[in-house]
Amino acid sequence: MHLTEKRIGFIGTGKMGESLIRGILASHSEITLNASDVYKPALERLNNELGINVSTDNTETIGDSDVVVLAVKPQILKSVLAAIKDSITADKLVISIAAGVPVAAIEDELNEGTRVVRVMPNIAATVAEAASAVCAGTNATDEDMVIALEMFQSIGSAITIPEKLMDAVTGLSGSGPAYIFPVIEALADGAVHEGLDRANAITLAAQTVLGAAKMVLETGMHPGELKDMVTSPAGTTIRAIRTLEESGIRAAFMNAVIESSTRSKELGN
Ligand SMILES: NC(=O)C1=CN([C@@H]2O[C@H](COP(=O)(O)OP(=O)(O)OC[C@H]3O[C@@H](n4cnc5c(N)ncnc54)[C@H](OP(=O)(O)O)[C@@H]3O)[C@@H](O)[C@H]2O)C=CC1
Ligand SMILES: O=C(O)[C@@H]1CCC=N1
């Protein structure tokens, strides 16, 4: 059974729900997507723009779906689960993308034996470049994991991890795009300071980040080695590297990942 043979229902069409919907539709235009949310205008916009089925009734979306993606805030997940419990019949696979919320907490709210998979994707799903990590719940079958991986690999890259690493992944790739957007803006600011126009500065900054990321992924070389390839003796780059190191750039990014992971753990308590 392939992903395209499944009907997928989204509970919550906020930032991440919409991002996943757009990414999945871009790679599987023929797939059946259903979505519900409490905010009707957003649903109507998605229906108009993307032609997906929408409802303000979660149970209707679940009834029409084989795979149910939970894309509501972690803080309200428990109450949403209590309300939909009886619609989640044994034939359905539940996928939660909620930060911090352990599989066990989800399974506790649903009927015994419910198949749950937990995923941490990121907002780059919108452009099919998400970095996702997937782990199986107690009752998830091998086929469930294949379906989940197929879904998240169709919108970027996806790996399987043990659940204990989900908070680390949340701190790194789940929250990560938000660390990089200000970097791109700040790089562009520097070039604007030196006289470049804003639009070209943003294009060059974003392409620089994209190109550097692609080199790490495609060459398999260590990032330090790649950095050395740019850094000529007594050249321009090493002057910039010194000032970045003086600013504590490495500690800043390490601490960002650790802080987000810590918050993810808090959300699970
Ligand atoms: N944003 C991101 O980059 C990422 C988010 N996540 C996870 O994805 C989940 C969603 O996050 P995000 O999209 O940012 O949050 P949003 O608040 O943007 O989206 C949640 C949506 O759910 C709606 N909603 C609230 N109550 C219900 C309900 N009872 N039934 C159906 N829909 C409801 C909200 O409506 P209203 O706003 O009117 O309350 C909102 O539209 C979270 O669990 C988060 O941890 C994971 C990875 C990345
Ligand atoms: O900020 C958050 O809580 C969510 C989870 C990961 C990214 N955004």
From TrEMBL:
InterPro entries according to UniProt: 6-PGluconate_DH-like_C_sf, NAD(P)-bd_dom_sf, P5C_Rdtase_cat_N, P5CR-like_CS, P5CR_dimer, Pyrroline-COOH_reductase
EC number(s) stated in the UniProt entry for this protein: 1.5.1.2
Pyrroline-5-carboxylate reductase dimerisation domain: residues covered: 163-267
Reaction it catalyzes: L-proline + NADP(+) = (S)-1-pyrroline-5-carboxylate + NADPH + 2 H(+); L-proline + NAD(+) = (S)-1-pyrroline-5-carboxylate + NADH + 2 H(+)
Keywords carried by this UniProt record: Amino-acid biosynthesis, Cytoplasm, NADP, Oxidoreductase, Proline biosynthesis
Domain Pyrroline-5-carboxylate reductase catalytic N-terminal: 7-100
Binding locations of NADP(+): I11, G12, T13, G14, K15, M16, A71, V72, K73, P74
Family annotation (Pfam families): F420_oxidored (PF03807), P5CR_dimer (PF14748)
Example of a GO cellular component annotation carried by this entry: cytoplasm
A Gene Ontology biological process term: L-proline biosynthetic process
Superkingdom as given in the UniProt entry: Archaea
GO molecular-function terms, A-Z: pyrroline-5-carboxylate reductase activity
Localisation per UniProt entry: Cytoplasm
Family: Belongs to the pyrroline-5-carboxylate reductase family.
Function description: Catalyzes the reduction of 1-pyrroline-5-carboxylate (PCA) to L-proline.
Protein name, entry field: Pyrroline-5-carboxylate reductase
Organism: Methanococcoides seepicolus
